[in-house]
Structure formats: C-alpha cells, structure tokens
Amino acid sequence: MSQKGNCRDKACAETFFKTLERELETLDGEHSAEEVRQSVFMYIKAYYNRIRMHSALDYVTPNGFNSEKAA
User: Fold this and answer.
1) By the 8 A CB rule, do 10 and 1 touch?
2) Which domain holds residue 33?
3) What's the pTM value of the predicted model, to 2 decimals?
4) Is 22 domain-assigned?
5) Per the domain annotation, does 15 fall within a domain?
6) Short-list 8, 3, 24, 19, CA closest to 55
7) For position 19, what pLDDT does the model report?
C-alpha cells in the first residue's frame, strides 16, 4: 500500500475486476451466487493464472512467470 490518496493504489485490482466482468458470462445477474462463486474460482485458477498472458509480465502467464523466477 502507498500513501492515502494515491490514484494507483487500486489500479491492478480495478483492472482485474474489469477484465473479469468482461470475460465471465455468469456475471449477468441470472445465475445463483454459488454458480458465480464457482465460475470466478475456475476463471482465476484455471484460466487467469495458467493460460491468460499478462502484459505486465512481458506476455507470460503468472504461473510461467513464477516458474521462471524460481529457476
């Protein structure tokens, strides 16, 4: 966390949630809370961390980036 009032405090979280809302179809208000919870879990664990490339990581997946750092 940085100082109070810094506009970049929540930039990563806001970008993630904007992407999540755009890419996840179950956030349309027509699904149960459990369906949305399961969809979000699968989106993060199965897609966002393993498959989706991130520009902030030089277009590498988070799992791939962590593997490269560990090696």
Assistant:
1) no
2) 11-70
3) 0.58
4) yes
5) yes
6) 19
7) 84
